[in-house]
């Protein structure tokens, strides 16, 4: 049988690698499964200048190489695999790669990130790789001394357009807003307006990309006048946002309408022991720094979950005697006195063991057994619940339960 | 795999008889670098069934553009010097590439 990991991370972008760093550093047996090369989207941009501490001369691929080395330094295994199937429901989670390899883990972090959105403009699909591109670092070289069009005007679009001016002769940005309005940050906008190789077409959208074997021209529509203009160009770069890569998760974890994974502040999904981080989850800001932060939170939350599960397994499920498990909480007075009643009931009874769990710190297990009152006493035999007392109880009631 | 460039592309690919596979890549293209080990394993496994070449497209831009490749990575199959099939970044999937080779070889 395959090894069981403590923590398996799906996706080796900044979110997944940060989870790997935190997981392996706290001595969890951790692996990151990545279908391509570690680094994710962040490794596809040269222009990465807002990760704290990295600004002069650092690049996306450079920073991601450091993330990878850092994770491996603490013992994270980086495995090559494309996860397509899974069973997350049990205590041991199973992930299945496209080539059939199965991976097992007690906890899973989903970090599949996002991919460029396509607009499905006529010609876009057909001319992909023939002038239509979604990755400036991949393809900029081809456009040395040529003309390109950029679609989009957010941070990524303006920064990538600027990068393209190092290669292309003219870079024309098609902007849907009125003159002077860009969605990107102010510093990038100011720099862009000063760049003599950058040109803007305002109030406009791309209608069509035309070309026989390579891109030859684009048709641009002015949304105010509906007038269509043709613009000769050799390439079209799209930076119009991203879509989450979560198709393979449908039916396994809760997603919102747009396909983003729903989590709480601890990065927990709706499945116990399964976490989600980075661009693929519902969140406000999708950046390297927030992906990395998510990874840290998820790994720490997973570590707590694993400790809780392990204690429960050892003390309750795998005990060789019947176990009386008390859910209590130091802040609930009645539950503290319940400890006394419980201990008195089993004082001379060597055939039963006692275990105690703080209801609020062990919410997973409390939830699994639908513990609603505090205190609640559960009786387990051979790992199965066979009886319970809800709310305050007496020593006699415990003796009765044991019969 | 044979490294091809503007000097030998004509002889190794366009004048070659039979099936030729060309991996258009560049050292700056992260997805290309990620694929490299798989491409090499693919070439090794199918040795003798086709000629396997790789072209650094960044260093041989004009040649790539003349071959209508302006996006990386790209895998192109040539048969008797004629381009017969292209996989682009989106469509590259090693099992599909293998199936294509089986069909063409
Ligand atoms: C052009 C561009 C420029 C950007 N510039 C900046 C910037 O300057 N600053 C900044 O902070 N952010 C920037 N970003 C955003 C930043 O890259 C992302 O927010 C960040 O990479 C998200 O990290 P992630 O770990 O969530 O996912 P990703 O980086 O998307 O990584 C996900 C990884 O998971 C892998 N994967 C997916 N599904 C599977 C599967 N089923 N099995 C195995 N592996 C799988 C993918 O191959 C990928 O490597 C930019 C993004 C783009 C596209």
Q: Using the alpha-carbon principal axes, give the shape of chain A.
A: elongated
User: How much helix is in the residues of chain B?
Assistant: 25-40%
The helix count of chain A comes to 9
Low-pLDDT parts of chain A are none
Low-confidence sequence ranges of chain B: none
CATH class of the largest domain in chain A: Alpha Beta
Q: How many β-strand runs of chain A?
A: 21
What is CATH's topology name of chain B?
A: Glutaredoxin
Molecules bound to protein: flavin-adenine dinucleotide
Please tell me about this protein's structure.
The complex is a heterodimer of chains A (403) and B (105). Chain A folds into three domains: 4-116 and 242-312, FAD/NAD(P)-binding domain, CATH 3.50.50; 132-238, FAD/NAD(P)-binding domain (3-Layer(bba) Sandwich); 319-402, Glutaredoxin (3-Layer(aba) Sandwich). Helices cover 26% and strands 27% of the residues of chain A. Chain A has nine helices and 21 strands. In chain A, a hairpin with a 5-residue loop joins strand 4 (83-87) and strand 5 (93-97). In chain A, helix 1 (14-25) packs parallel to helix 2 and helix 7 (333-345) crosses helix 9. The longest helix of chain A has 30 residues, at 288-317. Chain A starts with a strand and ends with a helix. Chain B has a single domain (2-104), classed as Glutaredoxin. Chain B has a five-stranded mixed sheet. In chain B, strand 2, helix 2 and strand 3 (51-56) form a beta-alpha-beta unit. Chain B starts with a strand and ends with a helix. The model of chain B has no long low-confidence stretch (mean pLDDT 93). Classes of the chains: A alpha/beta (403), B alpha/beta (105). The interface between A and B is medium-sized, with 25 and 24 residues. Residues 10-16, 33-36, 40-42, 44-45, 47-48, 50-51, 82-83, 111-114, 156, 160, 245, 248, 278-280, 286-289, 291 of chain A line the site of flavin-adenine dinucleotide. Flavin-adenine dinucleotide (FAD) binds at residues 10-16, 33-36, 40-42, 44-45, 47-48, 50-51, 82-83, 111-114, 156, 160, 245, 248, 278-280, 286-289, 291 of chain A.
């Amino acid at each position: 049988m395959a090894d069981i990991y403590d923590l398996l991370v799906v996706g080796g972008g900044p979110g997944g690698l940060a989870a790997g760093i935190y997981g392996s550093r706290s001595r969890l047996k951790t692996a990151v499964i990545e279908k391509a090369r570690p680094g994710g989207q962040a490794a596809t941009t040269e222009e990465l200048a807002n990760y704290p501490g990295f600004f002069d001369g650092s690049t996306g691929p450079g920073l991601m190489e450091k993330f990878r080395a850092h994770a491996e330094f603490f013992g994270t295994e980086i495995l090559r695999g494309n996860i397509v199937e899974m069973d997350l429901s049990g205590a041991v989670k199973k992930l299945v790669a496209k080539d059939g390899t199965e991976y097992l883990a007690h906890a899973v972090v989903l970090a599949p990130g996002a991919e460029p959105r396509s607009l499905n403009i006529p010609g876009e699909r057909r001319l992909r790789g023939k002038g239509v591109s979604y990755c400036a670092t991949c393809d900029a070289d081809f456009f040395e001394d040529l003309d390109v069009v950029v679609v989009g005007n957010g941070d990524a679009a303006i920064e990538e357009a600027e990068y393209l001016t190092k290669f292309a002769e003219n870079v024309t940005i098609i902007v849907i807003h009125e003159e002077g309005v860009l969605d990107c940050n102010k510093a990038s906008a100011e720099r862009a307006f000063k760049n003599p190789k950058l040109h803007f077409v305002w109030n406009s959208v791309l209608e069509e990309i035309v070309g026989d074997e390579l891109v030859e021209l684009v048709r641009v529509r002015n949304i105010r006048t509906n007038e269509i203009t043709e613009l000769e160009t050799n390439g079209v770069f799209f930076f119009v946002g991203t879509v989450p890569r979560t198709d393979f998760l449908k039916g396994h974890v809760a997603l919102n309408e747009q396909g983003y994974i729903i989590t709480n502040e601890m990065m927990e999904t709706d499945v116990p022991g399964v976490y989600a981080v980075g661009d693929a989850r519902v969140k406000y800001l999708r950046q390297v720094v927030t992906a990395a932060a998510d990874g840290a939170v998820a790994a720490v939350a997973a570590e707590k979950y694993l400790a809780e599960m392990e204690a429960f397994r050892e003390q309750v499920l795998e005990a060789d005697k019947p176990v009386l498990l008390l859910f209590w909480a130091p802040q609930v007075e009645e539950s503290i006195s319940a400890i006394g009643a419980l201990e008195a009931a089993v004082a001379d009874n060597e055939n039963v063991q006692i275990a105690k769990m703080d209801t609020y710190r062990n919410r997973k297990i409390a939830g699994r057994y639908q513990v609603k009152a505090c205190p609640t006493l559960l009786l387990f035999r051979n790992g199965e619940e066979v009886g319970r007392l809800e709310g305050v109880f007496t020593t006699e009631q415990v003796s009765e339960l044991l019969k | 795999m044979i490294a091809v460039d503007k000097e030998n592309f004509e002889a190794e690919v366009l004048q070659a008889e039979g099936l030729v596979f060309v991996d258009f890549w560049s050292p700056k293209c992260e997805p290309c670098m990620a694929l490299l080990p798989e491409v090499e394993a693919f070439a090794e496994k199918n040795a003798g069934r086709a000629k396997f070449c790789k072209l650094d497209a960044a260093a041989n831009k004009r040649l790539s553009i003349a071959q209508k490749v302006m996006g990386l990575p790209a895998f192109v199959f040539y048969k008797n010097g004629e381009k017969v099939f292209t996989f682009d970044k989106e469509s590259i999937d090693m099992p599909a590439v293998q199936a294509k080779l089986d069909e063409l070889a």
